[in-house]
Amino acid sequence: MKAITCFLPYIDAAQALPTIEALKAEPAVERICLLAGADADTAGAPAGCTVVSAAEGLNSSATMRAIAAAADTEFILLYTKHNKLVPGYHALERMLHIAADCGAGMLYADSYAVAADGKRTNAPVIDYQEGSLRDDFNFGSLLLFRTAAFKEAAAGIDADYKAAGLYDLRLRLSRIAPIVHINEYLYTDVELDNRRSGEKIFDYVDPKNRGVQIEMEQACTAHLKAVGAYLEPKFDTIKFGEEEFPVEASVVIPVRNRVRTIRDAIRSVLSQETDFAFNLIVVDNHSTDGTTEAIDEFADNPRVVHIVPERDDLGIGGCWNMAVDSAECGKFAVQLDSDDVYSGKDTLAKIVRAFYEQNCGMVVGTYCLTDIDMNTIPPGVIDHKEWTPENGRNNALRINGLGAPRAFYTPMLRAIKVPNTSYGEDYALGLAFSRHNQIGRIYDVLYYCRRWEDNSDAALDINKMNANNLYKDRIRTWELQARKALKK
Fold this sequence. Notes:
Elements: E1 4-10, H1 13-24, E2 29-36, E3 50-53, H2 61-70, E4 75-79, E5 84-87, H3 91-102, E6 106-114, E7 120-123, E8 142-146, H4 147-155, H5 165-174, E9 179-190, H6 210-227, E10 249-255, H7 262-270, E11 278-284, H8 291-296, E12 304-307, H9 316-325, E13 332-335, E14 341-342, H10 347-358, E15 362-370, E16 376-382, H11 392-395, E17 406-409, H12 410-416, H13 425-434, E18 439-450, H14 462-487
Parallel strand pairs: 1-2, 1-4, 2-3, 6-9, 10-11, 10-13, 11-12, 15-18
Antiparallel strand pairs: 4-8, 5-9, 6-7, 6-8, 13-17, 14-18, 15-16, 15-17
């Protein structure tokens, strides 16, 4: 029965003792190892535990190798938080049984979370799939590894990452054995009042931390090469003059029930100064709050095309398709959400110029997060500089978004089509376009992304967030399969 060596982050006895005592009571646990950082109180380590150095960082490659060297049982249990772990009743035995049944190399489960005030909430996670390449994929805090698979993955580590060690290891392990989600609530995380702020192991990376981003990109790129999905920086050439269009560019605004913001968005478009003809296509998806009437206030402006679909089954993507399929659509289709505004009068001109200068099928700009009154809010400017001409199309499979505003060469968009969803449709397009064509980048702030209480992604509950993340992972899975086929 004693099949597990446990590893948990260690600061001092006060932080670790509650979890140690809980694990000692588990009949399947053979040994407990403490992952001690450089500032850990190793002299005060509880008796009966083995101290394992994690001096280079708890999520470093060196620590992954140290875990592999220290494990001498059939399974490794890795707890990734400084909180108090409470295993569920017979939970570890349950995990071992499932591991035996399915041959998993790694297992993770749903859990409960108890805050410092005693409030308990559900913390479900999602299934792992081939496209679960995000470095911030949420496995929860308790991971069970088959030791043989862990050791094999660790033996293949050929880099010394400080931040991407666990990410690199699980990508390697996914090529060796299945990663399995147990859809059962098998443990509880209890937040400790004395837990050090900012020292949670494997805290997901701040996008401003460029060094961490580079490590994650390197690990993901190596994985794509290993599975046959890496694409070299060779792109198709686009000839923009082969078709005739009524205007050079069309701004597309899908909208439903945004009476508070739609006028600002329309005025933002109409204020653009260009040396080419453009229009605005507003697809009004059966608004009921006065949005339709607000759009009609601009009916005397010949640049404004107001479309109310006959269909009632359109998401944001479906509204985009309707705009792009219309005879009024220009050569380039440029995004503006109904909540947001362009940052200046030259935004549209910059976007169109980028298509020609960078010979790209899609252009992505830079945006700034603001409140409804356009006051900057943290984290401020989102530039997605991790997108490089050399490796952006590969790194796009790791990150969770590509930036804004987005614009597309209309003939290509008409051929690809926008998924008829209201989440992730833009990300799916970015992957599809980048499979063959360069995506142009503009690092000037072109767009104010306004956050307010009625944003479609404001205050999402965990089930909705999980559904969104599951869908994006599915998009990545499809894209991986397409790229593998392309390589063959």
